[in-house]
Inverse folding.
């Protein structure tokens, strides 16, 4: 039974296969958080958060228990914290009432269960009929403002999701000035935060810091989740690692401005909040109106990061990604971007498709440059009309030529942006964000469209539909190559300008929902200058994301390693590109480029007409090998074995995917540093059956599963730069 309502104890308990989450209504009607950790027999866990020491210089509620000076909002483990009422810690919710006062005191009203998973109007969220939902309703002590706290339990994955819907039942408008979904108060302890910082072409670099009395935060104010931060963190024991220790994974199902922050308070307890970044945010809720906060997904593991990651991977694959391709085998593609950039015509593309087909490639993708007068990145965004001179005919005719080569056909869009030199901008300059009396800032020679306005979204939707209806298109790469500045919407009055960032996201999600629903057979891939919007929000609409514009295999070790903490291999767009690499000029063996790209969607990003016969033969071999391992790679349990972020410990990076029953595994090891006279290295594998015998790469020699997991695989040294090896482990 995943949800236990005990009205006698006034406790509400969520149970997954391995974890337990509990909250309790206290003597004042405040909903306290009492426990989130390993599953155990039911009991009232409130004793674990009681405190008889008053939080110094902290007030007591007017209706607090008589004589209990220790009772303060600033000391209670709250399930939903509010600003302005005496809680001086990080708070999640900020309400500006109609009378101008700032604050709310939520008190318990009711709790009920619902079958299935709740949904959120206009927002992405996990889904699933097998989930069960708890709805706890709180009401402000003074005003008719209600907070509906939604919790969903996915028992199999140890996943709990939560959201808040704020309902205004007063006769006047109120404003939300903070709308953070998560308040998580943890017990006494010393915790770290693991997060994934970066920049363009260096996304999701793992960093780890101690949570101290000052705030530790990751955030974006760029209008996108961004290359620089990711809306996913791990709060963990100070000694936690891949296999050991408590770890709470926290992911926000949202693609815009966000904040995840943690601090240790004066009672030495740790609080974590997560949600919409409150900077430049205030949202009016009219009488009888509602506001839905983006969903937060949580997984707790008492066996370190690896177990937590695999829970997220399974939940994202099965209950966040949607549509035909969420678990289907995806076609091996070639993208022409690094092969041609803007310099192409139809004959050039067809020649590339012809050669690629011989090697086993199944999908040809035409990237930027096919529309308007788009011969460089200075013009034509917003004019989604095929350039028939460049394409030497209609888009439909080009698609047919590609199809006649035996390949599917895909194209690139950047629907959210507009060039000043475009017909759409000349007709509707107000469609782009720009502040009054200020010249707008340009980035990559383009502006951002005001998707908070329905007529702007509708214009782009109609243009895209005309293109997609007019040709046999099987794939769309959806790009977003700059961040939002000059935030101002001409459609909103001055007092509502704080709503624009969030309304932009609602407009984007509306467009994504309409397009992906209309074309269920098209494979959509998200991109934002590579990995600038790799988040759970986008994965609800598109089952894969271009992981980074950096396709160098050695740099990708860190990028894909960091990404794997939350996101499954099946979501990572990864291609083999040319050498010297276009991002860093590194030269790596073609085999290594292939081995790294296997652990993603695998494709090509180069001009195959310029490859040697030897290189073409190697790509043909890789495609066959990748397909033979496809199910194991995409759906196996994923383990990080040797980190590329610890060069003092090893010169290798290694990872593994293994069938849940331990019958088969695939290990990849890449040497990312070159040195002379190195010591022998072994990598300990995981997930095998300790008492069974295994063979490696089909050899006659057998190894006990326990030996491979405790002694490891010997990493044979190859005397050249950046070698890599695959170790296919099967039952003897």
């Amino acid at each position: 039974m995943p949800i236990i309502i005990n009205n006698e104890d006034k406790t509400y308990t969520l149970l997954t296969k391995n974890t337990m989450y509990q909250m309790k209504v206290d003597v004042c009607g405040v909903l306290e958080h009492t426990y989130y950790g390993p599953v155990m027999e039911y009991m009232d866990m409130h004793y674990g958060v009681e405190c008889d020491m008053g939080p110094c210089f902290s007030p007591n509620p007017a209706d607090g228990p008589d004589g209990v000076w220790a009772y303060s909002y600033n000391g209670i483990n709250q399930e939903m914290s509010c600003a302005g009422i005496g809680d001086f810690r990080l708070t999640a919710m900020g309400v500006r009432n109609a009378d101008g006062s700032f604050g709310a005191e939520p008190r318990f009203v009711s709790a009920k269960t619902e079958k299935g998973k709740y949904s959120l109007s206009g927002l992405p969220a996990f889904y699933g009929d097998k989930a069960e939902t708890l709805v706890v309703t709180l009401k402000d002590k003074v005003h008719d403002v209600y907070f509906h706290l939604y919790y969903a339990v996915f028992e199999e994955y140890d996943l709990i999701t939560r959201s808040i819907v704020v309902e205004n039942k007063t006769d006047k408008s109120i404003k939300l000035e903070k709308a953070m979904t998560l308040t998580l108060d943890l017990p006494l302890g010393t915790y770290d935060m693991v997060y994934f910082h970066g920049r363009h072409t260096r996304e999701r670099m793992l960093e780890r810091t101690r949570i101290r009395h000052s705030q530790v935060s990751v955030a974006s104010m760029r209008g996108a989740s961004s290359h620089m931060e990711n809306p996913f963190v791990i709060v963990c024991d100070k000694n936690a690692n891949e296999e050991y220790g408590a770890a709470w994974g926290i992911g926000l199902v949202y693609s815009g401005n966000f904040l995840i922050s943690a601090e240790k308070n004066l009672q030495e307890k740790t609080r974590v909040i997560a949600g919409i970044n409150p900077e430049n945010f205030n949202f009016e809720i009219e009488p009888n109106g509602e506001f839905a906060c983006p969903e937060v997904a949580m997984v707790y593991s008492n066996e370190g990061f690896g177990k937590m990651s695999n829970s997220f991977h399974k939940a994202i694959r099965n209950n966040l990604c949607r549509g035909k391709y969420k678990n289907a085998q995806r076609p091996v593609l070639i993208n022409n971007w690094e092969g041609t950039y803007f310099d192409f015509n139809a004959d050039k593309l067809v020649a590339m498709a012809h050669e690629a087909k011989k090697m086993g490639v199944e999908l040809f993708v035409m990237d930027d440059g096919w529309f308007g007068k788009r011969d460089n990145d200075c013009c034509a965004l917003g004019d989604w009309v095929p350039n028939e001179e460049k394409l030497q005919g209609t888009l439909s005719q080009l698609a047919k030529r590609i199809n006649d080569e035996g390949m599917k056909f895909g194209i690139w869009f950047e629907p959210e942006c507009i060039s000043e030199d475009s017909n759409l901008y000349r007709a509707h300059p107000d469609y782009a964000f720009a502040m009054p009396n200020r010249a707008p800032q340009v980035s990559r020679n383009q502006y951002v469209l005001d998707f908070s306005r329905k007529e702007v979204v509708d214009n782009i939707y109609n243009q895209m539909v005309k293109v997609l209806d007019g040709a046999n298109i099987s794939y769309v790469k959806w790009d977003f190559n700059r961040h939002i500045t000059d935030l101002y919407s001409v459609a909103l009055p001055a007092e509502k300008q704080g709503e624009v960032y969030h309304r932009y996201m609602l407009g984007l999600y509306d467009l994504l929902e309409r397009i992906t629903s209309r074309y269920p057979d098209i494979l959509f891939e998200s991109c934002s200058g590579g990995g600038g919007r790799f988040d759970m929000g986008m994965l609800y609409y598109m089952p894969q994301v271009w992981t980074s514009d950096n396709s160098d295999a050695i740099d990708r070790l860190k990028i894909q390693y960091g990404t794997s903490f939350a996101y499954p291999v099946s979501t990572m767009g990864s291609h083999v590109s040319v050498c010297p690499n276009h991002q860093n000029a590194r030269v790596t063996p073609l085999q290594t480029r292939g081995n790294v790209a296997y652990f993603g969607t695998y494709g090509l990003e180069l001009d195959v007409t310029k490859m040697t016969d030897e290189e073409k033969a190697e790509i043909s071999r890789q495609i066959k090998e990748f397909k033979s391992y496809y199910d194991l790679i995409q759906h196996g349990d994923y383990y990080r074995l040797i980190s590329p972020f610890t060069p003092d410990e090893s010169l290798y990076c290694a990872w593994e995917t293994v069938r849940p029953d331990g019958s088969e595994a695939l290990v990849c090891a890449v040497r990312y540093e070159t040195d002379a006279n190195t010591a022998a290295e072994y990598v300990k594998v995981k997930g095998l059956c300790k008492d069974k015998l295994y063979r490696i790469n089909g050899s006659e020699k057998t190894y006990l599963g326990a030996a491979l997991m405790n002694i490891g695989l010997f990493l044979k040294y190859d005397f050249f730069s950046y070698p890599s090896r695959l170790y296919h482990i099967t039952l003897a």
The radius of gyration is 27 Å. The first helix runs from residue 304 to 319. Residues 664 and 730 are 5 Å apart (CA to CA).
